[in-house]
Specification:
Helix 4 packs across helix 5 (about 65-80), helix 4 (about 35-60) runs parallel beside helix 7 (about 100-130) and helix 8 runs antiparallel to helix 9. This protein has helices at about 1-5, 15-20, 25-30, 35-60, 65-80, 90, 100-130, 140-155, 160-175. It is mainly alpha-helical. The protein has a single domain, classed as Tetracycline Repressor, domain 2.
Length: about 180
């Protein structure tokens, strides 16, 4: 996972994979079938791990604004941990790739859409509970927050500090602090 996260799919060679894993080529193929199959497993493992903090942040707050503040703060922490590559593996993965990797590109698009859908659902709950204005453009706001979250991952990858990422997240979540009737 670390190798793919750090270098991307196309930037990681088969020889690097088997060297890091300490296995032979035949063991690799017997275990995973292909580099692409291993990448799929790696992305799924990452998504499960990230999904834990992502979903918890959106669910554990009384208000929608607090939920998004929590989400961006936790993301800032997760994206800047010293024990793993910086940023978000999914945000950085396969935005540009060769035509031969269109399946991987589609997988990453689906993963990013899944997180946007979760944000849209949390915003809908906020409207339903009277926490947010009923006329709120939920689809646009979910897209905006998804863009912010992905941007935090890219900023972290570029070396932005945790503090900077937290402040960016606070500004974005601050859009929800307005009174629900305005």
């Amino acid at each position: 996972m670390r190798l793919f996260w750090d270098r991307g799919y196309e930037g990681t060679s088969f020889d690097e994979l088997i060297a890091v894993m300490g296995i032979s080529a035949s063991s690799f193929y017997n275990s995973f079938g292909s580099k692409e199959a291993l990448y799929h497993e790696t992305i799924e493992a990452y998504a499960k791990q990230a999904g834990t903090w992502f979903n918890a942040a959106l669910a554990d707050s009384a208000t929608t604004a607090a939920a998004f503040r929590s989400l961006f703060e936790v993301a800032a922490y997760e994206f800047t941990r010293s024990d793993r590559p910086a940023g978000c593996m999914i945000a950085a993965a396969v935005t540009q790739c060769s035509p031969a990797q269109s399946r991987l590109k589609g997988m990453m698009i689906d993963m990013r859409r899944f997180s946007e859908d979760a944000m849209r659902l949390r915003l809908s709950i906020g409207v339903k509970e009277g926490d947010l204005a009923p006329r709120l453009e939920i689809d646009v706001l979910a897209g905006f927050f998804s863009t912010v979250l992905q941007g935090l991952g890219v900023q972290a990858r570029d070396g932005a500090s945790r503090e900077k990422l937290i402040e960016i997240g606070r500004v974005a979540a601050g859009l929800l602090d307005a009174r629900p009737d305005h």
